[in-house]
TrEMBL record:
Domain of life: Bacteria
Protein name: Acyl-CoA dehydrogenase family protein
Enzyme class: oxidoreductase
Enzyme Commission number: 1.-.-.-
Cofactor: FAD
Keyword Ribonucleoprotein attached: no
Entry keyword set: FAD, Flavoprotein, Oxidoreductase
Length: 384
């Protein structure tokens, strides 16, 4: 398998080659219908260097590489793109905060595709305000190890991951809710862990799970970085997470648009292609306008992030919001354009329509993104 370089164009070409060999449209549909994770595809993508290629020699991740990979994946096997968002977060956290022993034991097999990681943060009572609502606790034992008990919810890929990066409260809430939370590397095989799949509408090839933790014993060597600073570690990934969410939403929009445009050119009514009708042309042009706008905003946000520009947080929020709206608009327009055929599960439009809805609320709701932009971009009073 040809391995990827750190150039985004090269990464895109490698993704396309891997998808062509391992994930043609019929296989993507098969795994979506069966609600199964495609381990073969994951291994092939990692083996081609699409995880390790994001890291430079200093251990810093390339935002441009990630965006290129995720956009291309999302246009095809969308669930794998969502899985890769989690893997890139794990790579970033482990490369930035892991000890040499942790990197050997957990980062190296992840980069090779031998295991995939899961990120266990959100809980039943806390999504946007998860730090304040966190009830999962990790108690330090006399031998220095920890006992973790609690519950996590909406955790992707936790049923069959190699390990979780799991956040738990280790100190009572003080003046700041984000303090006193620690990140642990928890092998999935650790006794005391139970997972239950949540039946979801979209992204069905990556199971969302409830995790139940009952006296899960973790050695001190599995603390990632400094104790009580786990949530601050996560905050350091938020800009990249918004960029990656924008890339996946953009990829969904592009995939749906290509299907809709091909349908408009080939499907006939009243003796001519349906793309000849003005109303349908307008919907396709409007979709393309939203896609191209999202592309430009994402490119600007990626450049700002790569340069370390403080304005990058606003740019990434704008890109995420624009890409989310491009995805929902385009998939809705595609469903309307294709009529009953868009509704048919044998064709991919209905899957794009379902999958796109994730990015109206992940990693933050579009409403919270607007609140953030109102404060940071427009200088308005904080609304939350």
């Amino acid at each position: 398998m040809t391995t990827v370089t750190r150039q985004p164009k090269a990464a895109t070409d490698v993704v396309r080659a891997v998808i062509s060999e391992h994930a043609p449209a019929n296989r993507v549909r098969e795994f979506d219908e069966a609600e199964r994770f495609d381990h073969e595809l994951f291994h092939a993508l990692a083996h081609a260097g699409l995880l390790s290629g994001a890291l430079d020699d200093s251990g810093k991740l390339s935002h441009a590489h990630q965006a290129a990979v995720l956009t291309e994946l999302a246009a095809g096997p969308t669930s794998m793109a969502v899985a890769f968002v989690v893997q890139y977060m794990a790579v970033q956290l482990l490369s930035a905060h892991g000890t040499p022993a942790q990197k050997d034991a957990h980062l190296a097999p992840l980069l090779a595709g031998d295991v995939h990681a899961s990120f266990a943060l959100s809980e039943p009572d806390g999504g946007t305000d998860v730090a304040r609502a966190m009830k999962t606790t990790a108690t330090r034992l006399p031998d220095g190890s920890y006992s973790i008990s609690g519950r996590k919810r909406w955790i992707g890929g936790a049923m069959d991951c190699g390990y979780m990066l799991l956040l738990a409260r280790t100190t009572e809430i003080g003046t700041s809710a984000i303090g006193g939370i620690t990140t642990f590397i928890v092998p999935r095989s650790t006794p005391g862990i139970e997972t239950r799949e949540i039946d979801t509408m979209g992204i069905r090839s990556l199971a969302q799970t409830d995790i139940f933790l009952d006296d899960v014993r973790v050695p001190a060597a599995n603390v990632l970085g400094e104790p009580d600073r786990g949530f601050r570690q996560v905050i350091g990934t938020l800009n990249g997470e918004r960029l990656n969410a924008a890339a996946v939403a953009l990829g969904i929009a592009r995939g749906a648009f290509d299907v809709a445009l091909d349908w408009a050119k080939s499907r006939e009514a009243f003796g001519r292609p349906i793309g000849a009708f003005q109303a349908l042309q307008h919907s396709l042009v409007d979709a393309r306008l939203k896609i191209e706008s999202a592309v430009l905003l994402l490119e600007r946000a990626v450049r700002a992030a790569e340069a370390g520009d403080p304005s990058g947080d606003v740019d990434s929020a704008l890109a995420k919001l624009a890409a989310s709206e491009a995805a929902t608009f385009t998939t809705d327009a595609g469903m309307r354009l294709m009529g009953g055929w868009g509704y048919a599960r044998e064709l991919p439009m209905q899957r794009y329509f379902r999958d796109a809805r994730l990015y109206t609320f992940a990693p933050l709701t579009d409403e919270m993104i607007r609140n953030y932009l109102g404060e940071k971009m427009l200088g308005l009073p904080r609304s939350y």
